[in-house]
Amino acid sequence: MSDAADSRLASAYGRLLTLLADSLHVDPFLDQIVRVAAEVVTPAVACGLTVRRDGGAFTVASSGDLAAQGDEIQYGADEGPCLEALRRGRIVEVDDLREDGRWCRYREHALRLGIVSSLSLPMTVERETVGALNLYATRPAAFTGTARRHAEAFAAQGTAALTIILRQADQALLHQQLTDAMASRSVIDQALGVLMGQQRCTATEAFALLRQASQHRNRKLRDVASEIITQVSGQSPQPAPGFVAPRHQM
User: Fold this and answer.
1) pLDDT at residue 12 in the model
2) What pTM did the predictor assign?
């Protein structure tokens, strides 16, 4: 690789790290990955990111219309290089689509768009191929030599970054679920205190009354508890002292 090429790839790594540090949501992170890929892997014209979801394949981010349309053609035809990379978990390179006999249903429409060569790289997270990074070019043999090495290196770094941000998203979801559970428990405990005072009963008896009201009204236990507290205090229930909601949500 030339010094300029090395510098460009190193800069891309730095941008990935910055994106990883700054991104609070997965979608903007994916949008930036494809834009950086299209810039660093020259002479790519566009880049798209295909992911597997609910048994199908979808483009979650693209750097331009060419990539978005190139991906969509493959979904409609149920064949093509990015789908093969996604399904087989291996790199799929097309040097010259005009002379490539694979994927006949995809080939004709892609050529009309101006796609002549492409490179699809699987993104594997925890031994599962969850996506494919798809690079498109309007000239033949665009992804050989340095371009291919750059693409493979960037895809590896992008996959590592994606793994981290997906784990962060999972942790944020778990944190939010725990937060919601704690908030529900706080509201229910407050309602039980009200019922114990009103009915002069034990906590077990108060909970039985609350559950009976929930079943009778066909409403969630927390909603019934919230209604009880509002009726008594005139205000919506507040989190218990010491409970702190997260500042950011993924």
Assistant:
1) 54
2) 0.63
Please identify every stretch of the chain with a pLDDT value under 50, giving residue numbers as ranges. Answer: 1, 241-250
Q: 13-37: buried (b, 16+ CB within 10 Å) or exposed (e) per residue?
A: bebbeebbeebeebeebbbbbbbbb
Per the document, the length of the chain is 250
* Cα separation, 239 vs 223, whole angstroms: 14
Phi, psi angles (nearest 5°) of residue 128:
-120, 130
CA atoms of 119 and 144, how far apart (whole Å):
9
Q: How many whole angstroms separate alpha carbon 234 and alpha carbon 194?
A: 13
Question: What is the largest distance, in Å, between two alpha-carbon atoms of the chain?
Answer: 85
Give me the pLDDT at residue 250, please: 36
Q: List, for residues 170-217, the tens digit of each pLDDT value.
A: 666 655 655 666 677 778 888 888 889 988 999 888 888 888 888 888
Pairing, β 128-137 against β 56-62? unpaired
3-class SS letters over the chain:
CCHHHHHHHHHHHHHHHHHHHHCCCHHHHHHHHHHHHHHHCCCCCEEEEEEEECCEEEEEEECCHHHHHHHHHHHHHCCCHHHHHHHHCCCEEECCHHHCCCCHHHHHHHHHHCCCEEEEEEEEECCEEEEEEEEEECCCCCCCCHHHHHHHHHHHHHHHHHHHHHHHHHHHHHHHHHHHHHHHHHHHHHHHHHHHHHHCCCHHHHHHHHHHHHHHHCCCHHHHHHHHHHHHHCCCCCCCCCCCCCCCCC
Contact indicator for 179, 65 with CB cutoff of 8 Å: no
